[in-house]
Every structure is written in C-alpha cells, then in structure tokens.
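hiii, so i know i said id send this last week but things got crazy w the move. better late than never?? heres the sequnce for the chain we talked about at the cafe, plus the structure i predicted for it. fair warning i was half asleep when i ran it
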Amino acid sequence: MYRKELDGLRAIAIIAVILNHIKHGLCPSGYLGVDMFFVLSGFVITKSLLEKDKMGIFDFLKNFWARRAKRLFPALFLTTSVIILITFLFSSNESHHTTMSIETGLSSLVGLGNIYLASMATDYFSTTAELNAFTHTWSLGVEEQFYLLFPFLFWAFMNRAQNKKIFISILFLFTGLSLLFFLKNFEKNPIKAFYFVHSRFWELSIGSLVFIFSNQVQRNNGSLKKIFSNVSLILLPILLSIILIFLFDSKYPSIKEKYYNLLIVLLTAFFLLFSESKSSVIKLLQWKPIAFIGLLSYSLYLWHWPVVTFFRWTFGIKLELIPLILLLCFFLSSLSYKLVESPLRNSEWKWKSINQNGSFSPATLSIFFAICFIIFIRLILFPFYLDGMFYLGIPSKMKFKGVHNLLAPVSHNSETWNPIHCVLTDNNDIGKNISSEKCSFGIEFKNKRKYLVLGNSFSAAQVYMFQTIADKGAMVTITSTWGGAPAPNLSHNGKWDKINDYYWEKIIPQLMNELKANDVIIMVFDLYDYINSKERLSLLSNELSGFLTLCKQKQIKVIFQHAIPFMRESNCNPDLAQKQWWHEIKEPPCLYFSKTETLKRREPLNEKLVDLKQRHSNFFVMDLMDVFCPDEECRFIDKNGQYLYRDEFSHPSVEASILARPNLLKSLNDLN
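okay and structure toks below
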C-alpha cells in the first residue's frame, strides 16, 4: 500500500541535500538527507518484500532485482548519458576532474560509483569531489550493493515464520558490526567510513528493522497499537521539528561530528516507527505539493548535482544564480520522471525490436545496456575527447597541468630528476631506496654546501625552483613522499600512512647521514591541514622543534617554506580559471580570497614559526606569499597571465616555481 507520508519525508531529505550541495551555508547539515534516504530505503524495501507472495529463491531474486532495475536504471542511464556528453563539451579534456567525472559516471551504471571514488581516495567535501559531476552516485552504489545481500537473507529466513527471529538477530548483528566499523573509521579512515557498503549497512538495516517492528505493532489489535497511536500524536511533531532544526539550522548540537549520522538515522527511524498515525504531521507530509517533491526525489537527486557542478565549471555558484539552478533541477527532474522514470518503471520492458518475448529480465537488460554504453564511451568517444575534439572552451596554456604530471621526469642541463627513483607514491613503495646519486642536480664539492629537499607532493611540484641551486654550482637532492607530514611522529591517516612513517624513519635519516656540518635541509610541505587546527599546529611545533634540535646537533641548517595561499578552497583549477566565451557576462567561477584574509588565517602558523626561529638558531623561514599572491586578491593567474597553480590542490605550477627562484636564492644568502 502506497504511503504518501514517506514521500513527504523524502521531500524534506532531498530539499536539504540540494540546498547543502548548492551552497553549504543554505543548509549546513543538509548532506545528512542522504542518511535519511538510506533509512527510508531499508524501510520501504522490507515493506515491499513482506507484501509479496511466497515463491522460490530464483523467482524471488529475479522479481526483486527486476523491480530494482526498473526503479533505478532508466533515470540513471539518461542522466549519465546526457551529463557525460555535456562534460565533453564544457569540461576541459586536460582537467583531472573531467576524467574522474567520466569514470565515476560509468562506474555508477554498474553500481560501483562508491568503489571507484574510494579507490581514488576522494574526500566527499573536497574540491575534486565538487567538480566531479557524478560524486553523488556513491550512495546509489551503496544501495545497489546492499540489494545484492539483503534479499538472500530475507528469503532464507523471513519466508519461514519459525526463522524470523533468526533473521532479526542476524540483522541486529550486522547492524551493530557495521555501526562499529563506521564509528571506528570515521576519523581514522574517513574514506572507508564514507563510501563502503559495510560502513553504511547499518543505516539501511535500521530502516528494515523499524518496519518489521512497526508492522508487528500494527497487526496487534490490543493496547500496544493504541499506545503507539496516542504517543505518535505528541511525539511526531517533536521528532519532525528536531529533524528540520538539525538539517537546516547552522548551530550544530555539541556532539562529535561522527555522531551526526547516527543522530539523523535514529530520528528518522523513530519517526517511521510512529508514522502509522492520524497526526496532523502525517497529513502535512501527505499534502500534494510536498508529496510530489518526494515523488520526484530520485530524479531530483540524480540531476541536482550535475546541474550544480555545471555551474561550478562555468558561471560559478553566485547568489543571484541560485533560483536558476533550482529551476533547472526541477525542470530536468520533472521531464526525467514523466518521460523516463515513471513509464519504464511501470512497463514490462518488452519491445518489438528488443526483448519482444520477455526472454531477458530488466536487470539483465540494464547490465547489457550499461556495458554497451561503457564500451561506446571508453573505446570510441573518449579517445577523440582526449584529443580535444569536443571541448568548446580554450584549455589553459602551461608547461605541466594536473596532479598526474607531478611524476613527470625533469631535465636540467645534462641531468634528469626522475620521480620513479625519488618519490614515494603509495604504501607499496616501502623498501624503496631513495639515493642522492639518482635524485640530485649539480655536483657535490667538499668546500660547498650540499642541499637536501624534504617534502610531500609540493616539493615534487617545485623541482624547477631548486634547479637554481645547481646553477650556482652546488648540489641539491630532491625527495618527496605523497601525503607526507611536515615533521616526524605526526599521526597520519589514509592511504599514505605507512610511507609517511617509512620516509621519516628510514629515508630521511639515511640521507641526513650524507650531510656534513653547515649543509642545508629545505622543507617544502603542504600545510593546509595544520592551519585550522590548534591541536595539530601545536603537535607540528613540538615535533618540528625536536627535529631542529637533531639538526642542530649535526650542525645542519633548516629552511622551512611557509604556507602558500589555500587555493584548494577556490573550487577551481587552471582550466576553470581560464576565461572562456561563456564568461562574457560572468567571470570564471573561482572563489578567490584576499591576501589580507589569507595572511590572517595563517597567522597562528606564523606565530609558531617565529617562536621556533627564536628558539633555534639553525631555523630559517622562506615565505613565497608575494610569488603566489602578488596582488591584493590571491588568484590562479597573475596579472601577467602566468599560471601560479597547476591543479585544484594548490600545487605550485612550473611557471610559479621559476618565479620563486630569486626568493630561494635570497633565503640561501640569509644563511651566511
């Protein structure tokens, strides 16, 4: 039986999600609407399965997956097809986020969008995710993977009355294990906690358990049903008010962030538990305009993110454009729902040209169409796109662009610095030997200083800056570890944790042993993660102080590169910063910050560095702010047309690294 109030809840969830994705401040906790969808999905799926007649395992699974395919695939296929073609036209073939968009979209067609994003270590709240037109499909992957396991459990136990308690016990066990996994990894390994089905299983299974329990209550004609009915009149308005306040109010409750998901799931679950009610709240949720938005919620979810992403690529998310964005979202979703989602959901999928006899189930046809489309895009269209055939804009002109080019070999005079020998890129590189013989420019002289560069990907990005040391007749060894911490003994989560430890415990001591008195270490790290955290900043100061003491004992001087502008917050990259023909009315969509604001934000770090300089006579700070922000506003491109950053992660460009050479030489002269 169709229940309109569930569409009312979907409407609240999707409105919160859309507003949050357009502009975080419009609905600060709106992203939690996805968690509401998970609970609702578990609730509705269990409801629909319990209402079905008993049948054999093969027919049961075929019927279940056919209904899921008819519900999810047609609208997803339409959205993916249209948005990939728009990506070809309006997103540069040389941009990192473009390839990720296309790969994510294709992965989503076979229910693997979340797996792909996790494999790329994509932070859902990062610029990379915001520029990916299919980031939102991670949740579809979670649901589809849940649907692979859940029907087996349901058929095995819920079809037999004597086994229902076993099913509920198993579901409780899986729910508990999944929730523990989520809470344990939320801070330690957020990618796992966010994207994987086993870390989200608890949200869907709670919805399932709620329906099983509420169904038992409704079948009870005694006092329990009456108690629930009376309590719902008081409880439902309270629960709905708390849900709305939690989603839309900017003042978060004073709990740890990892409990936000748990709180919204419990609030939604309790609301559903009492939703068989005559409360005025239920009538409000059943109101036609609200219920209609709920009916559109799946199409709205599919279309809203690509629309928002398109504006990020082109005109930016400006306040005056928000009504247009919302209008486009609802227009495209309405068309999708009326022309594709609803008709194909209610048809038999038998056509004269294809499947006339119904030999293939909708699930089989969905997989077939998905694979054909993936082959068509990857093998036919994508190669032409990479050659620049479809892009309607002008790509940015710079020597190297994008993260992948950080691993390109760099030649200087007759020498070549090859990252294969000098950079640790993942945990599989443990055991790799980084030697000064293979990772240096210039010749070592006994009476001249030798320079050793330590860093994460930023040191690899600035290799061209260090070439000037060799030009001055000295030797410089350049090393890097991806995701490296700027001091030893700093906790490091994520996929680079082990190589970070290996770099500080093995590689650096080995290279330091080759240094003599008066030699110099140059430290070049991305300091973004330490700017906004007093705790991490204090840890950095303490550990860096210990490292400086060790260097002082060896009579080694240390130059530490100060933080450069936080360009990763601009939601931009070189190609988005490039002015295109569609920017005649609006400037490129980058969100820039003033130099004054940037300096103010990094002041706590500056205070720590000044303190370290006062306590350690061998410590010097190199500040490149005037190179990377030469004007009052920090931008991707300076007034002379030079690109200062190579990607959306704030990695310095080759051009900026060359511009920074005089600053480096000045810092070296200050050592004397």
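btw DSSP finds 29 helices and twelve strands in the chain. thought thatd interest u
miss u guys!!
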